[in-house]
């Protein structure tokens, strides 16, 4: 690993995306044993973020995994399915979408509105009511859309406040997302065995100390009646809080699915290690494959404790709609 990679973080770029904001909020919100600053490295797409970490070009990656109104980010789930990275953290940030353009761009002059597909979806109602006849153009990121709006006449972009400042654009309409509670969850991951990554994270001072611990699993099972019930039954029997379950094509055979499962354990009232050992003992004979994607402090608990999730709101306006 190059020396610079030891403090490098890859994120879904370019500069000014919500992933950029999430990376800054997470890593700059951590107390560190080293005074060396984190190097933020933008990547062209989600796949490139994973590739950068797998190659050892960067130590950590930051990608969006789900949105509170639009659901899962499929590219991220597919990369978790096909790579060996370990999740070490998460951060949840509010998403504020604005319509950006040059100061003299009136609604009548707008013929195209560009943004990430997730952002377009999150503003679907507002766009339908205000711009029913314009062309909607998907971009790799909201920041890329802002750059496009900067260089093309008659083009507006949906992006955050930081993107407006970065690309010299005006906010033509503010807070245009359809739901005020719009949030996106981002994962922080690294490469290596879970034990190695945990040790590395602790040494770097990013392990966190939240009272709730979240564990992410990737589970496969036979396609037979009752298979899903058999997977979920141990969570009920052990009274474990199942916070997410999502099916995704396995990419191996047609109509074969795997399940992404998140569960949360309150470490103030449970022995996490003992409870997980009991859970996995019940799960393994009920599955054809069971992989722990990572175990890390829950952002829900960190937010309640006033931790890194409550970083300045301006940082969260800094980026891209979907990533």
Gap between N and C termini: 27 Å
Secondary-structure element order, as H and E? EHEHEEHEEEHHEHEHEEHEHEEHEHH
Q: Helix share of residues?
A: 25-40%
Rg value: 20 Å
The CATH homologous superfamily name of one domain equals ACT domain
> Beta-strand percentage?
25-35%
Main pleated sheet = 6 strands, mixed
Task: Give descriptors for this structure.
single chain, 323 residues, alpha/beta, D-Maltodextrin-Binding Protein, domain 2, Alpha-Beta Plaits, 6-stranded mixed sheet, 5-stranded mixed sheet
Structure description:
With 323 residues, this protein is of the alpha/beta class. Among the domains are: 98-173, D-Maltodextrin-Binding Protein, domain 2; 211-296, Alpha-Beta Plaits. The protein has twelve helices and 15 strands. It has helices spanning 18-27, 46-55, 74-82, 117-122, 124-130, 142-151, 161-166, 194-204, 227-237, 272-283, 299-304, 313-316, and strands at residues 8-12, 39-43, 60-67, 71-72, 86-94, 98-101, 112-116, 135-139, 155-159, 170-173, 183-190, 212-220, 241-249, 257-266, 289-297. The strands form three sheets. Strands 1, 2, 3, 4, 5 and 11 form a six-stranded mixed sheet that branches. Strands 8-7-9-6-10 form a five-stranded mixed sheet. Strand 1 (8-12), helix 1 (18-27) and strand 2 form a beta-alpha-beta unit.
């Amino acid at each position: 690993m190059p020396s610079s990679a030891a403090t490098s973080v890859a994120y879904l770029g370019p500069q000014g995306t919500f992933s950029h904001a999430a990376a800054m909020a997470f890593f700059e919100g951590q107390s560190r044993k080293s005074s060396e600053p984190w190097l933020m490295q933008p990547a062209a797409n989600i796949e490139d973020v994973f590739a950068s970490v797998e190659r050892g070009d960067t130590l950590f990656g930051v990608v969006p995994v789900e949105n509170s109104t639009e659901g899962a980010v499929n590219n991220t789930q597919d990369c978790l399915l096909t790579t060996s990275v370990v999740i070490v953290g998460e951060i949840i940030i509010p998403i504020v979408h604005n319509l950006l353009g040059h100061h003299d761009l009136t609604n009548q002059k707008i013929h195209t509105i560009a943004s990430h597909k997730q952002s377009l979806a999150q503003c679907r109602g507002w766009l339908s009511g205000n711009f029913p006849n314009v062309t909607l153009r998907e971009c790799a990121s909201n920041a890329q859309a802002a750059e496009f709006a900067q260089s093309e006449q008659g083009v507006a972009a949906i992006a955050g406040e930081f993107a407006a400042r970065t690309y010299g654009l005006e906010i033509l309409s503010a807070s245009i997302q359809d739901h005020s509670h719009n949030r996106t969850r981002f994962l922080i991951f690294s490469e290596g065995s879970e034990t190695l990554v945990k040790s590395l994270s602790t040494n770097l001072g990013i392990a966190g100390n939240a009272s709730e611990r979240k564990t992410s699993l990737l589970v496969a099972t036979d396609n037979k009646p009752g298979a899903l019930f058999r997977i979920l039954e141990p969570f009920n029997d052990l009274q474990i809080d199942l916070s997410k379950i999502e099916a995704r094509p396995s990419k191996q055979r047609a109509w074969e699915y795997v399940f992404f499962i998140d569960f949360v354990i309150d470490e103030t009232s449970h022995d996490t290690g003992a409870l997980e050992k009991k859970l996995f003992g019940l799960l393994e004979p009920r599955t054809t494959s069971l992989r722990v994607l990572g175990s890390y402090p829950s952002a829900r608990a960190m937010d309640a404790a006033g931790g890194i999730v409550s970083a300045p709101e301006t940082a969260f306006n800094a980026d891209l709609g979907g990533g």
